[in-house]
Amino acid sequence: MAKLWDYLMKMLARANPQDLVSLLLPGAQFEGELVTELQNRTIEADLLYNMTWNRKKAVLHVEFQRRGDSNMGKRLWEYNILTTYLTGLPVCSFALYLKKGGKIIESPFEQVLPNGQTVHLFYFSNVKLWELPAETIKQPGLEGMVPLLPLFKGGKRREVVEEMIAELDSAGKKDLLPLGYAFAALVFDKEGEQEWLRKRFHMLRDILEESWAYQEMVQKGHAEGLEKGLAQGLEKGLEKGLEKGLEKGRQEGKLEAQRETLLDLSLIHISEPTRQAEI
């Protein structure tokens, strides 16, 4: 589960790539994913898109982070310079942070020789969702990013969750509700908040289970053997978290409970943050 939020962000971006490009670089046009050759060169960047920006070809590079990473400047620089070398295109790099926490490295990243001479000066952009006003994501053409609404400034409110549900419905994007559920769970971290959130989305269970996002979560759960841990995690209470659920579930989990518990994948939240692996 160390890459849970990274995985969910990639799902959201894959569903609406132009919306993400427009959020980060208004006016730029998504042209397609950057594939295969870069993967063979051991690039493990979260997202690489070909795009047209100001009528010129370029690459959008994004790293999704649940919280700060003291090595982020160097990571972005490495991915950027290698992608530039392999494609011959300029690369625009972003670090997109979902939730406040940890050390966030600011631009630029600098490589300095022992004599003090700068040999590399690399500029990148940080996007801290909790600092952005909700209006940012309510622009036409950004409907595919609405599941992130609870992560924006002032988003930790029930009325914001209701607004997110309503906007996804009106935009014809109800398939993204499971992702909205997951991202809301990242900030609704108190026991009472979690319980309300779980009940609210349980009311939408039929819609959730029919969505492609839910089906992909189920498949991911099968692939990683999560269904047993999730069953036990829920039986013992959401507050015990996924880590304990996995530990218990491997010993005692019941497969017949998986359908119910996989619905709550996104709400088995990091209630014990010091015990959870971060992105």
Task: Please describe what this structure looks like.
The chain is an alpha/beta fold. It has helices at 4-15, 17-24, 37-40, 72-87, 158-170, 177-187, 191-202, 205-210, 212-224, 226-235, 241-252, 258-262; strands at residues 29-33, 47-53, 56-65, 91-97, 109-112, 118-122, 125-128. The strands form two sheets. It has a five-stranded mixed sheet, sandwiched between helices. Strand 3 (56-65), helix 4 (72-87) and strand 4 form a beta-alpha-beta unit. Helix 1 (4-15) crosses helix 2 (17-24) and helix 10 (226-235) packs across helix 11. It is globular. Residues 226-262 and 265-279 have low confidence and may be disordered.
Q: Oligomeric state of the chains?
A: single chain
Structural class: alpha/beta
What is the CA-atom radius of gyration, in angstroms? 20 Å
Write out the strand line-up for the largest beta sheet, numbering strands in chain order.
1-2-3-4-7
Q: So what's the overall shape?
A: globular
Q: What is the mean pLDDT?
A: 80
Strand elements, count: 7
